[in-house]
Amino acid sequence: MDTATLFATLASGGVIGLVLGLVGGGGSILAVPLLVYVVGIGSPHAAIGTAAVAVTVNALASLLGHARAGRVKWRCAGVFAVSGMIGAALGAELGKTFDGKRLLVLFGLLMIGVGLSMLRKRRATEAPDVRLTRSSAAKLLPRLVPIGLAVGLAAGFFGIGGGFLIVPGLILATAMPLPFAIGTSLVVVSALGLTTATSYALSGLVDWSVTAVLIMGGVGGTLAGISLGKALSARKGLLERGFAAVVISVGGYVIASAL
């Protein structure tokens, strides 16, 4: 790996970790475009596999910080994660059968759709004390299981951690406040990323040298993201709108480049 590629990979890892630490998701949706267009990995499938490994490790690092702050609903995360892992395993196998350019076009369209959805205002009443118990299971499980399965399918297909889908999915299923959804999502991101990463690694579609450098940059970015998130907590709406604009822009660039 030459010096320019090394710094590009470190910087890309820093961006992925920063976003994961800041908003709990979205770092993974930027990982594949960064690896293809900044780092220069030629195969979209290898970029997806490499991104999945790096995102999983960075998500675990970010999860530690949120868990210490008490912002993780573990039982809800567990059900969502198991459902999502089943979907991710199916999605990863399906994604490997698609042509690389078509996969990038679909990926770009997904980015634009997610970015636009992030700009919509959430109107649901929040339930900060929501817990998965015997009494609440009849209400929560019919929501957590199918939403988790659908999110996992998309995460595996596109090789993403899925945090940008998991956060709104958790809110839709449980009405938990955004800070709890962000912390809880990282459990699921880690589980889905591990499933996807394992599938691609077994197929030889992971560049391990790039992965190691990505992780080094990502750990630093994650710590910075968590700290910055605390400082900008009063401007969370502005932060989300800014990130949504970045996601939409990158999605458009991915589509234009693939075509």
In short:
The chain has 259 residues and is mostly helical.
How are the secondary structure elements laid out?
Layout: H1 3-23, H2 27-39, H3 44-68, H4 74-95, H5 100-118, H6 134-158, H7 163-174, H8 178-202, H9 208-231, H10 236-258
Describe what this molecule looks like in 3D.
This protein is mostly helical. The chain has one domain. The chain has 10 helices and no strands. The chain has helices at residues 3-23, 27-39, 44-68, 74-95, 100-118, 134-158, 163-174, 178-202, 208-231, 236-258. α1 packs antiparallel against α2 (27-39), α3 runs antiparallel to α8 (178-202) and α6 (134-158) packs antiparallel against α7.
Characteristic key phrases:
cell membrane, transmembrane helix, mainly alpha, TSUP/Inactive_protease-like, TM_pro_TauE-like
